[in-house]
Amino acid sequence: MRSSRRHPLLIPALLSVLVVLAARPAAADGDGADLDISTQVARLYEDASVASGQYEAGRQDAEAQRGRAERAERRLVRERREISVLHEDLGRIVRAQYRQGGGLPYTAQILFAKDPDGLMRSQHAVRRADLAVAGAVARSRRAEGRLAVDEAKARSEWRALERRTDDLAAIKRTIEARLDEARSALQSRADASVAAGACRGAVRLDQPPPAFTSAWVAPVETYELSAGFGSGGEHWAHRHTGQDFAVPIGTPVRAAGAGRVVKVSCGGAFGIEVVIEHPGGYYTQYAHLAAVAVDQGQRVSTGEWIGQSGTSGNSTGPHLHFEVRVTPDMGSAIDPVPWLAEHGVVV
Questions:
Q1: What stretch of H or E contains 191?
Q2: How far apart are CA 320 and CA 226, in angstroms?
Q3: Do 289 and 313 meet the contact criterion of CB atoms below 8 Å apart?
Q4: What three-state secondary structure class fits 65?
Q5: N or C: which end of the chain has fewer CB within 10 A?
Q6: How far apart are CA 251 and CA 266, in angstroms?
Q7: Is 283 helix (H, G, I), strand (E, B) or coil?
Q8: Radius of gyration of the chain measured on its C-alpha atoms
Q9: H/E stretch holding 253
Q10: Could you say which DSSP state residue 250 is in?
Q11: Quick check: 72 and 151 in contact, CB under 8 A?
Q12: pTM of the model
């Protein structure tokens, strides 16, 4: 599957943006009904993409915060284990000292010792070890204090991130529910157009800014490949004549390359379709659409939105049927996948 797009500090601001997206009006005032539903689907499609991306960003931030807290706890466990080893060493030294000195005061031990210098060296070593352990214990306690503060802060931040992630998920669900309703309405209008054999006219979608440096692009941005060229099945009289891109209803469909629209039709097995003539004698077809955004005779640029995907005509489910032809008519198709690859587009 091909797919397209963070910063923890941006999440509150992005959450506010998503609240605005969720509150967008269902239709633009003053526009026709067809344009309303098509524009609504296109905008909700983008909103859902933004919401999904920010939900995933928030979830990853929460996981990263929890990971930092868990790593801090592991550091504390290691420090405690090291202190325990030091305590055991000190205990052995003290027990050895007691056995050698018999519990006498240090001054008495020196007076009665056969080797006072050795005893003093031993006691000095004990004091050094004791000071070292005491220092280590003090450092560990300070570290534990800092760690406790850090853990409390991490838990608080993580809970806040979880709450934001839950809020993002709720907004995402709301947008997706509205998108599903709008997609259903859009497809119903498409089916009515196909049944009548007449297109309702081009809708004017909010085109994305031109951002393509290559002459050719895939006809949809995010997709899964389904039925390929030449495959067999009960839905085709002979063999499948194009490449299917499985996408949801309402997905913006792009012109694979610059050219002129030579056909817009709404009937028959292809449902709503657009055919574009390109320089060099090739044509591309986009079929089973839910809406068209271009008129016959119109010139289009690479990546320009020419319609929205659907499941009109002889279709088993939402997808874009894409063909590359040597004439504008059915029956002249060639395999579009290697053709696209030859033109720098790998699908």
A1: helix 116-196
A2: 10
A3: no
A4: helix
A5: N
A6: 18
A7: strand
A8: 36
A9: strand 252-254
A10: T
A11: yes
A12: 0.63
Helix (H) or strand (E) holding 265: strand 259-266
* Residue-wise pLDDT tens digits, 174-214: 888 888 888 899 999 999 999 998 888 888 888 888 778 89
| Token reading at 32 | 């026709």
- Burial pattern 61-94, b for ≥16 Cβ within 10 A else e, equals bbeebbeebeebeeebeebeeebeebeeebeebe
CA distance 43 to 37: 10
Q: Reduced to 3 states, what is the DSSP secondary structure of residue 245?
A: strand
Q: Which residue has the tokens 């005491």?
A: 134
Hunting for tokens 């027990």 — which residue is that? 95
98: Cβ contacts below 8 Å, ≥ 6 apart = none
In this prediction, residue 29 carries a pLDDT of: 38
Are 271 and 278 spatial neighbours (Cβ–Cβ below 8 Å)? Answer: no
Find out whether 39 and 203 touch, Cβ atoms under 8 Å.
Answer: yes
Map tokens 């709720």 to a residue. Answer: 170
Give how far the C-alpha of residue 31 lies from the chain's centroid of Cα atoms, to the nearest Å.
Answer: 33
In residues, how long is the chain? 347
157: number of Cβ within 10 Å = 17
Specify whether the CB–CB gap between 11 and 54 falls below 8 A. Answer: yes
Lookup result for tokens 């000071």: 131
Amino acid (one-letter) located at 88 = E
Residue 136 has phi, psi (to 5 degrees) of: -65, -40
DSSP conformation letters of 81-142: HHHHHHHHHHHHHHHHHHHHHTT--HHHHHHH-S-HHHHHHHHHHHHHHHHHHHHHHHHHHH
Cβ 133 vs Cβ 86: under 8 Å: yes
Q: Is the dihedral of CA 45, 50, 51, 52 positive or negative?
A: positive
**Tens digits of per-residue pLDDT, 208-236?**
887 788 999 999 999 999 989 987 655 54
Q: What is the pLDDT of residue 327?
A: 96
DSSP letters, 281-345, are TEEEEEEEEEEE---TT-EE-TT-EEEEEB--SS-SSSBEEEEEESSSSTT-EE-HHHHHHHTT-
Residue with tokens 């905008």: 43
| Nearest one of 208, 202, 229, 201 to 285, comparing CA atoms | 229
Phi and psi at 272, nearest 5°, equal -85, 125
DSSP 8-state code for residue 272: E
Residue type, 6: R
- Tell me the C-alpha to C-alpha distance, in Å, between residue 19 and each of 84, 166, 275: 53, 13, 39
